[in-house]
Amino acid sequence: MNKLFFRNDYGEGAHPLVLDALTRTNMAHTCGYGLDDYSLRAADLIREKCGCPHAAVHMMTGGTSANLIALSAFLRPYEAAIAAQTGHICVHETGAIEGSGHKVLIAGDRDGKVLPDGVEAVVRAHTDEHMVHPRVVYISQPTEIGTVYSLSELRALRAVCDAHGLLLYIDGARLGSALTCSEATATLRDIAALADAFYIGGTKNGLLFGEAMVITNPALHKDFRFMIKNRGGMLAKGRLCGVMFLAALEHDDYFAWARHANETADILRAGMARAGIGQLIATTTNQVFPILTRAQAQALGERVEFEHWADVDEAHVAIRLVTSWATTHADAQALAALMEAL
Amino acid sequence: MNKLFFRNDYGEGAHPLVLDALTRTNMAHTCGYGLDDYSLRAADLIREKCGCPHAAVHMMTGGTSANLIALSAFLRPYEAAIAAQTGHICVHETGAIEGSGHKVLIAGDRDGKVLPDGVEAVVRAHTDEHMVHPRVVYISQPTEIGTVYSLSELRALRAVCDAHGLLLYIDGARLGSALTCSEATATLRDIAALADAFYIGGTKNGLLFGEAMVITNPALHKDFRFMIKNRGGMLAKGRLCGVMFLAALEHDDYFAWARHANETADILRAGMARAGIGQLIATTTNQVFPILTRAQAQALGERVEFEHWADVDEAHVAIRLVTSWATTHADAQALAALMEAL
Amino acid sequence: MNKLFFRNDYGEGAHPLVLDALTRTNMAHTCGYGLDDYSLRAADLIREKCGCPHAAVHMMTGGTSANLIALSAFLRPYEAAIAAQTGHICVHETGAIEGSGHKVLIAGDRDGKVLPDGVEAVVRAHTDEHMVHPRVVYISQPTEIGTVYSLSELRALRAVCDAHGLLLYIDGARLGSALTCSEATATLRDIAALADAFYIGGTKNGLLFGEAMVITNPALHKDFRFMIKNRGGMLAKGRLCGVMFLAALEHDDYFAWARHANETADILRAGMARAGIGQLIATTTNQVFPILTRAQAQALGERVEFEHWADVDEAHVAIRLVTSWATTHADAQALAALMEAL
Amino acid sequence: MNKLFFRNDYGEGAHPLVLDALTRTNMAHTCGYGLDDYSLRAADLIREKCGCPHAAVHMMTGGTSANLIALSAFLRPYEAAIAAQTGHICVHETGAIEGSGHKVLIAGDRDGKVLPDGVEAVVRAHTDEHMVHPRVVYISQPTEIGTVYSLSELRALRAVCDAHGLLLYIDGARLGSALTCSEATATLRDIAALADAFYIGGTKNGLLFGEAMVITNPALHKDFRFMIKNRGGMLAKGRLCGVMFLAALEHDDYFAWARHANETADILRAGMARAGIGQLIATTTNQVFPILTRAQAQALGERVEFEHWADVDEAHVAIRLVTSWATTHADAQALAALMEAL
User: What CATH number is given to the structural domain containing C317?
Assistant: First the structure.
């Protein structure tokens, strides 16, 4: 019997609508490197949905590549990014940001969310040319641990950035989930209005791969395509991202898929509540972190694929359950039932 | 009326067999980052076809990314690559190799092919710690301008590498074309036996994207996955490359597609011969470089998409015509006829 | 009236013996780049004093340059250094280590000294290719805040390095002070026996500039001069460091100067004890960190040059007083008296 | 018997006036890192002599360090420098420019001097984001092979830079020699007026070490001290360069020393003319390149220290003779006589 799959949100290929679009356009001839009509139309559509007619939009192959290209385009050699301890660039990119020459400074956070006070403390501590110069605040929406910045939290970060001449960069690997969860207060237009640059994640929401980088600050536009190529991030068949983002966004399916992921996660959360299973961190997005006894975790592991997340204490662990556009209601209900029966 | 498309070999999506394989496997659940069964099976298949049971095989997202990751894995900071003036890493990667810290030294070439004497001259000129230390010979098979190293030429380069402690790295962006052209003498097994590392290009021969890096020298295996991630080259849905290379290689279609590309180019070459149109460089692979008068080039450009390649003299230019798995015989014959009618 | 100078240990030129040696040898003709007889003899002398006949010794221009060259020689691109939060490479090198591509990971420390448990926690947290690979433990002896590792503490770090395949690198910017302070238990030979590489600081102990890098681990010797040149750290008149280190070490004056610095600091510590002035951190080396009220600090600042170090609480600050070979007993006693009179 | 020393211009310590200044100021207390009064006064003096009241002046430790810091401050990651084949950054810096991420493009030259046409050819060849973007023209005055740009040649390079949005950077490792040679037409003020940045070399003209970077283009001033520190080029005792440049420049001795070097080279040139010994390249600066038979070179080598420069043909070699402030008229005359007697 196959296990239920809650390991991650990149465990399948693409949403069928996306695959259909690839198939439909497969034999069309286009020029390469993202200058084709599909890519240009996708960029237009994204500008429109962001309410940013002058934003630059570039298609990136993946999250780490997007982050390292953007930050190395935005920073001079002695400048640094500020991030939460749990930030993807701090931990899970094998030093890609440092590999492009830049230090990542840790700011105080709450529930994975960078705090304005944390940013200010970093700025205050870096006073002269013997230290790096903090220049970009990196956050992800939602965070690595599934929490979501409210609109007012984002505005507070924007204010602290403005006060100190910092750029605000938002990693949107799971942006769809943040925009459609029950606690969402910041819209896509808010994100575009508040960030200097951000990306709309495709890999984890229905595309084969691909992230759409949106650079709203015109001072950061210059020669970005040179940076993409210099860092090995430019696909010959750049049209693929264009075709896929068009398919995902032209009828707003992208948001529907993300909402579906959140709702299947809600089914899990409801089951856990009924079963009295606590969470390591409360989330409304597509990642859920139940705390189980080691015996419960082992028992569940025989029926379900998931990741071990953290050791809580001698007796307890936290696991990570992830839903996606590909998670069925049936599977979510089956898992909820399994948890209730632990 | 649509123009005939001879602009490049990455102007469409994937070969239908590849797209079918992606569709068929689309909803299978796998782990990420290239550790899934498809990727492992593709690696096994490639090892088998290369006759290298101990080679390391890694799936890369594109050519520039593959080259920069391999060279920065193989070189220490003061070490350099040697390449032909026309080499892709010299000209068309926006300084990606230098961006990872390494100088590219130019060796003398003939018809785009690095000469052993050229390598030796570079080695002799670099004598002490005030100069970079040459460490890798970079060639591509076929070269940027469509020429092909014979087996004896490759053996001569291997010998000069052995004599001077150099590694031999082969960029195989269009490797299929070289292996199946009329003048081919080096087989895939020869390539694997002679190179320390090389890649089998997928982007330009039927895949959506993806290149299979084959590292035959065990001294270069260590921690290559760390390097891929550090440089932003690791896809979450790594399985995609696995699925696509399996589809292309399990019944040797990959070679059939490349042969088809060469044969459609032969149709062009035959037409040119009949028309008395000369070539900038004689090729047997999927790139053809006719020399036309400026008026002829302009006339042809109204019916055919191609790239301007070089100014030959006041009156003449060379254009580049590229064929692929997607080029029909009908289109090749139509273009041949157009050239004969110029 | 001139203020008493306790701002740093690089506020004057060189010890007169060093300047004499430079003057005496000034018109001798030598070859360049550190291959002259003075440099070779200095290297021999250092090997002898370290009890390491096979160590490689290289003259470096300064501390940051020495650290960045050594770490970028020792690490592959995805490998990282481990250091204390207060480590010089973490804070005061403007991201030079990251600038050469490497992450610096923070390990738990006590009094600025990296703890074996801290190293192990970092190693345990870095498990796969999505994270950097910890490879070097960076410590300084004494630490940035003037504390000293005991021989048994160094041995414990060596043991944890051996257990996890880590290199131990010791920044000896003020090594003389650590070797000659009242709590010293590790000798120069111990340092050489325990570290894979370390440097003997000249800038802060009597030389105009210059640090002697000692690489005891033969696996790290290869092509280090290429690395020095590649990073801009090779002086044309390399002999200068050779001449200066010879002058400092041939009759062990180097240690006498460091002892003198510690003893003048002892005078300050004694005065503080009599005055009941506490220390931010207890030291026996040439840096002293008295805690003063803000009014006391301001009053003292009118007579003495020193650095503000930290805000302790609303009412108190810690300042930093630094002594050197150039600090007179008279000045130390004068400052002690001023502190007693606060 | 000691050999005559004509190996290089960095074979001794410092000019006695410089050493005196170091000795005289040795015990003065100053702050560190080049913010002391000596350094500030030296910077003022340099601004005055350059006729550039708003230039930024920074003290650098050596030529390679100066070049790599300046170019990595001025260039974005995908931007490249243009230089002559014989340029120091192309050949003799162990890939330091590439090590900081930037390609060095070769422009056509005559006698080691970059030609405006050569620059334009490079610019024309780099047309899009698949190639690096040329941004800085690097020249040295005099060139690596001792030739000197005339004022009109420099103006022509400035014009081509202006036409293409390029910066002009001048490596002045031997600038004194170029400013005081018999064919000099460009003054220090001309250099300052035409370059965006350049450095006045100290190492090869009387200082222990040190080069004064003069950045005349205010758009390049920002945060240069961060760059110096980030690349390991900031000396703790930064005052040393200040003291030495003050001593060299306050009564224009710097120029007298350089003129002396040129004049002793003139003695060699006169001897060669009398003896009918040809030159590989005609120079008026402190490097002379006689062409000798192999037997002559060997005979001379028994009495004189010099560098073998190039093999001219089967029978002939070119050697390099270098003079400096430290070369005596007597030694120059002795060497001239030796050459006449060959």
Answer: 3.90.1150.10
Q: Which residues pair with D326 in a beta bridge?
A: none
Q: Can you tell me the ipTM of this complex?
A: 0.97
Distance from the B14 Cα atom to the nearest Cα atom in chain A, whole angstroms: 7
Using CA coordinates, name the residue in chain D closest to C6.
Answer: D29
Q: Which residue has the tokens 């592991």?
A: A301
Per-residue pLDDT of chain B (342 residues; tens, 9 = 90+): 689 999 999 999 999 999 999 999 999 999 999 999 999 999 999 999 999 999 999 999 999 999 999 999 999 999 999 999 999 999 999 999 999 999 999 999 999 999 999 999 999 999 999 999 999 999 999 999 999 999 999 999 999 999 999 999 999 999 999 999 999 999 999 999 999 999 999 999 999 999 999 999 999 999 999 999 999 999 999 999 999 999 999 999 999 999 999 999 999 999 999 999 999 999 999 999 999 999 999 999 999 999 999 999 999 999 999 999 999 999 999 999 999 999
Residue of chain D minimizing CA distance to C236? D10
Q: What are phi and psi of D206, to 5 degrees?
A: 100, -10
Search chain D and give the residue with CA nearest B90.
Answer: D131
With CA atoms as reference, report the closest residue to D81 among D62, D60, D99, D98. Answer: D98
Cα of C226 to nearest chain B Cα, Å:
5
Answer yes or no: do D241 and D281 share one domain: no
When the pLDDT of each residue in chain A is averaged and rounded to a whole number, the result is: 97
- Please check whether residues A131 and A224 belong to one and the same domain: yes
Length of chain A: 342
Question: Looking at CA atoms only, how far is residue A77 from chain D in angstroms?
Answer: 7
**CA dist C112 to A160, C102, C198, C291, Å?**
31, 22, 18, 18
Q: Residue C59 corresponds to which amino acid?
A: M
Asked if the C-beta of A75 comes within 8 angstroms of chain D's C-beta atoms, the answer is no
Residue of A nearest to D74 (CA): A76
Residue C19 has its nearest CB partner, among D12, D26, D235, at D26
Number of domains in chain D: 2
Cis peptide before D142 (omega within 30 of 0): yes
Q: Are residues B235 and B260 in the same domain?
A: no
Report the residue from C78, C129, C227 with minimal CB separation from B78: C227
Taking an 8 Å cut-off on Cβ atoms, the answer to whether D26 and C8 are in contact is no
Residues D201 and D88 in one domain: yes
Domain coverage including residue D197: 16-249
> Cα distance from C236 to chain B (closest Cα, Å)?
11
> What is the tens place of the pLDDT at every residue in A130-155?
999 999 999 999 999 999 999 999 99
* B311 beta partners: B317
Domain boundary among A219, A249, A279: A249
For residue C103, the chain A residues in CB contact (below 8 A) are 95, 98, 104
Both C241 and C270 in a single domain? no
Asked if residue B306 and residue B241 are part of one domain, the reply reads no
Cα C7 to Cα C29: distance, rounded to the nearest angstrom: 38
Chains that touch D (3 or more CB pairs under 8 A): A, B, C
Which residue from B minimizes the CA distance to C33?
B130
CATH number of the CATH domain containing A179: 3.40.640.10
Contacts of B228 in chain C (CB under 8 A): 129
| CA atoms of C57 and C41, how far apart (whole Å) | 11
Q: Are residues B176 and B257 in the same domain?
A: no
Last residue of a domain, one of B202, B220, B249: B249
Q: Which residues of chain D have pLDDT under 50?
A: none
- Mind listing the pLDDT tens digit for each residue in D242-261? 999 999 999 999 999 999 99
Q: Are residues A324 and A176 in the same domain?
A: no
Distance CA A170, CA A87 (A): 11
Crossing angle between the packed helical segments B16-24 and A16-24, to the nearest 10 degrees: 170
Contact A105, A89 (CB under 8 A): no
Query: In Å, how far is B287's CA from the nearest CA of chain D?
Result: 19
